[in-house]
Amino acid sequence: MRLVASLLLLVAMLAGQGAAAQDAARLDLGASALTAEGRDRGRPRPMELVLTLDQPVPYRVFLLDGPPRLVVDLKGLDFGTAQPAQLFGAGLVPAIRWGRFQRGWSRIVAELPGPYAITQSSLSTRAMQPRLTIALKPVPPEDFRPRASAAAALRNLPDPAKLGVGAADAAKPDGLVADRLLVALDPGHGGIDPGALADGESEAKIVLSFALAARDALERAGIGVVLTRADDRFLGLEARMTAAREAGADLFISLHADALPAGEAAGATIYLWDPAANDAATRILAERHDRDDLLAGLDLTGTDDGLAGVLMDMVRTETQPRSVNFAKFLASRMALSGIDMHRRPVQGARFSVLKSPDIPSVLLELGFLTDPTDRSHLTDPAWQSQMVGALVAAISGWARDEGARAALLRQ
Ligand SMILES: [Zn+2]
After folding, report:
1. What's the predicted TM-score (pTM) here?
2. What is the DSSP string of 302-363?
3. Tell me: the pLDDT tens digits for 285-325?
4. Last residue of a domain, which of 93, 118, 152?
5. Count of the separate structural domains present in the chain
6. 23 CA distance to ligand 1 middle (Å)
7. Where in the sequence is the domain holding 46, given as residue range(s)?
8. From the CA of 207, how far away is ligand 1's center (Å)?
9. Measured in angstroms, how far is the CA atom of residue 358 from the centroid of ligand 1?
């Protein structure tokens, strides 16, 4: 019997789950493993992923393409402090990630060394601990059966646009003066995607803590703020832009603290959308951000082709100078505040998250986690408040300048 398993949706509804189901399930990392058959390291081998849990949970298993990936979604599973790198056999696949995904679901994504088929996917509850076994075998490319598109993988999950954090709703309460400036702060990464990691610090956590501090300071200065995420959760690049647009943001600032090979980058850097950018370092960053999005099961394929692309470019010709203007304000305010900046503080990059044609957008690398000096700054509350101060001053200055320009244009 041939087992075609491009999608297996199995719900373990056990009698008497009741109150126990309220507690998050845990992964028993020591009793979980990824193993491969045979010793031929040169080519893809059959593999088996065994996940041992402390209670049964609903789950689903499927494959995605570009690159080939195995996705395992588990409802109500809390990974706690367990790191994918600690999973026995993690090195058998090019990359493995896990973390919170959406609405109580957690996700494991394992990049596969080639096209595979799922030959088994079952949750055994006979042993002391429930055990999820997923068996995979390499197949020729023509037999690879990924889900039709990454977007389809989300069909049964809530609309990404609605994932914006509660702050989005609170940002424009009734009666608020319509012309109050609203800034979308977008802490990069989160949940399944921790971003850069160094010295026990994760980019996702650092930029979230910075965003929360910046939100408080901006609100004290009378500037409205919408956060694309306010906790440690995954959000696709498109959902980030959608959250900003739905809130009616006047400015979009994506916050990062990435990793680059030693010596490639140090100091705060401001990036603007530039489809022609081809600098090696920014290419690494752009590829990584898009790849993180892909790895988590989302992609931007087809979002700006043909006519849509032309229309977006037309709108962008109006917003791009405003993005550039903001970048200048930010660079000068950071310089005035004594913030260490990259030798080229404003650069162009193909960062998909900056693609919004109608909202001035910048991506701010607060620093690089790979640089020891940057790293010590990023985790220093004094540096953080200095940087927050520069950001608030830049936004206020830019808004006044834009307001003055708009008034001039109206004459
Ligand atoms: Zn990043």
Report:
1. 0.66
2. TSS-HHHHHHHHHHHHHHHHHHHHHHHHHHHHHHHTT--EEEEEEEEE--GGG--SSS-EEE
3. 887 777 766 666 544 444 434 444 555 555 667 788 999 99
4. 152
5. 2
6. 32
7. 7-14+23-152
8. 9
9. 23
